Every structure is written in C-alpha cells, then in structure tokens.
Amino acid sequence: MKSVLGIAVFAFAALFQGPAMARGSVPVINYENVAVTTGSGKPATAEQVRQAFITGTAGRGWTYTQAGDGKLLANLVVRNKHTVSAEIVYSGDKFSVTYTGSVNMNYELKDGKPVIHPNYNNWVNNMLSDVRVELTRL
C-alpha cells in the first residue's frame, strides 16, 4: 500500500510539474522616452539619472557597463541560469530601456514580434521601480 501511495504522489507531481515550469511567452516590453521626475521637482542631470540606475538596482543584481555618452548596457544573471541584457539611453530629462539579448529566456520572434519569458518584463519593471525611488530622492 505504501508503494502505491508513493507512485500516486510521484505521478501527481509529474503531471503538474510541466505546466508549472513551462510558462508561455509574452511580448517584450521596451520603455521609450520615460520622463525623469525628481522628488524635489528640480531637473536632474544625466549623471544623476545614470547613478539612479546603478545605485537603485544594485540590490537586485543588475550590473552596468558604460556604452558611450548617455548609454549603459545593463546585465542581470539569475541563479547562474538566466541572463538578460538591455540598453539604457539616458539624459537629464528622459531615459529608454530596450531589450538587447538573453540566455535561457525563450526569446523568439512570433509573427515578426519579439516574445520572451514573462520574468524578463518583471525584472525590468522592478528595475524601473527602483530607479524611480532613487530619482525621488533628488
């Protein structure tokens, strides 16, 4: 009886493991020309916006490489299994975050439109929330 119960539990877990692990892809969300808003209402400098990305998201594991004037390349490695990259173009009054690449995130073109695992959009959305918090401190 004990072995039958064990087999039933294993079969039940195997039946539901696939759908839980395999998530459907969603459209890649890029953020274009997002207005920079500071807590004081004063204009920010490009350097302050750059620093808001670096400081605000450090706790989430994002790393940055300067990719020219007003450009950063953002990278996030999750559990040494998933990697995502985005280009950030910034100035004192606006910024954009655009997908540039990923590893193990199910990225593909469907009907000519980029789709990806939904965690990518969640991670970028968290990045933007953290940046907004940093900008409110200015």
> What structural class should be given to the helix and strand makeup?
alpha+beta
The coarse overall form would be: globular
Which value, in Å, is the CA radius of gyration? 20 Å
The counted number of beta strands is 8
Cα separation of the termini = 66 Å
CATH fold assignment: TATA-Binding Protein
- Average per-residue pLDDT, rounded, comes to 88
Share of helical residues? 25-40%
Q: Approximately how much beta-strand content do the residues carry?
A: 25-35%
At the first level of CATH, what is the class? Alpha Beta
Give the number of helices: 3
User: Describe the biggest sheet?
Assistant: 5 strands, antiparallel
Number of domains: 1
Pick out the low-confidence regions.
4-21
In CATH terms, what is the architecture? 2-Layer Sandwich
Strand order of the largest sheet: 2-6-5-4-3
Please trace the helix and strand order, writing H or E for each element. Answer: HEEHEEEEEEH
